[in-house]
Design brief:
The chain has 298 residues and is an alpha/beta fold. The chain is 51% helix and 13% strand. Bound molecules: nicotinamide-adenine-dinucleotide. Residues 8-14, 31-34, 37, 52, 65-67, 71, 75, 95-96, 121, 124-125, 243, 246 line the site of nicotinamide-adenine-dinucleotide.
Length: 298
């Protein structure tokens, strides 16, 4: 592969993603506000820039992996990224952000003469390190085609979901299913406990019956039935509860804005937010089973 990538945001996800682009043969010029993260990426072959603007100035494509929409929009506009890039640069934002912010980012990039793609990811830090992420992308077909080689260097699958914002929409809809189903599985285990049903018996039935789902058979919220699940290591993440709370918050915003009666999604967003602010701060999202038990006085 050839070409120069400007990469801004070298945190838990962005750091290993940038390194995978280097491994695939790209010249990667990176920047992060945290000097230690920039130094670690430089040790792995990323060229350290003195600023975000410097990172994108000579790039063919720009990848951002930032905490939230306000960071992306601030960098694109006031931070000068769009103004500093060569005309026609491809801007790929892999952060998980509000659908409305993603659409605003596309609009700003287009107005500045660039191409844009929202391409949030699933797969976590493990997927970022192993280049096995799944990308869900929104933007026009040309932008997706241009981004495909980059995405292939950082992941195993990229789905073109539709126009601007469609990648973010797919991400929050998927995670709303996941968040709700983890609560459903947790409530079923706690109800089973109250009825004297063993975890293994419920698992053996539900995992081969109509209750089967990823939250049960891969990330089982009680220890025992699924070796290696976060429940088996005292709920060390995995997918941390604050990240689930963030994604469900974005889903709840989108539901309210669109007048969608997503009653369980909104309830789940509140449950994860409370959990993440309290005992769940450093736990996997499947630790929500403990919150269910506590609310049940058990
Ligand atoms: P992180 O906080 O580790 O990384 C974000 C980085 O952006 C930080 O290092 C921060 O210093 C940097 N940053 C912020 N503002 C900046 C600026 N103006 N200029 C340069 N750098 C700046 O977060 P993360 O876990 O890597 O997550 C990044 C995004 O990916 C988030 O939107 C998150 O929701 C999403 N995501 C995370 C995971 C996960 O498991 N961590 C999984 C899927 C999606």
């Amino acid at each position: 592969m050839s070409g120069t990538i400007g990469f801004v945001g070298l945190g838990h996800m962005g750091g290993p993603m940038a390194v995978n682009l280097v491994k695939a043969g790209y010249r990667v010029v990176g920047y992060d506000l945290v000097p230690e993260l920039l130094a670690a990426a430089a040790d792995a072959g990323v060229e350290a820039a003195a600023s975000a603007v410097e990172a994108v100035a000579g790039a063919d494509a720009v990848v951002t992996m930032l905490p939230a929409g306000r960071h992306v929009l601030a960098l694109y506009r006031d931070g000068g990224l769009l103004a500093a890039a060569r005309p026609g640069t491809l801007f790929v934002d892999c952060s998980t952000i509000d659908v409305a912010d993603a659409r605003a980012a596309h609009e700003a990039a287009r107005a500045a003469g660039h191409r844009a793609l929202d391409a949030p990811v699933s797969g976590g830090v493990v997927g970022a390190e192993a280049a096995t992420l799944t990308f869900m992308a929104g933007g026009d077909a040309d932008a997706f085609a241009r981004a495909e080689p980059l995405l292939a260097a950082m992941g195993k699958k990229a789905v073109h979901c539709g126009d601007a914002g469609a990648g973010q929409a797919a991400k929050i809809c998927n995670n709303m299913i996941l968040g709700i189903s983890m609560i459903a599985v947790s409530e079923a285990f706690v109800l089973g406990e109250s009825l004297g049903l063993s975890h293994q018996a419920l698992y053996d039935v539900a995992s081969t019956a109509s209750g089967q789902c990823w939250a049960l058979t891969v990330n089982c919220p009680v220890p025992g039935p699924v070796p290696g699940s976060p429940a088996e290591r005292d709920y060390r993440p995995g997918f941390a509860a604050p990240l689930m709370a963030k994604d469900l918050g974005l889903a709840a915003n989108a539901a309210r804005a669109g007048g969608v009666d997503a009653e369980l999604g909104l309830r789940a967003a509140r449950m994860y937010a409370e959990f993440a602010e309290g005992t769940g701060a450093g736990q996997d999202f499947s630790g929500i089973v403990r919150a269910v038990r506590q609310r049940s006085g058990r």
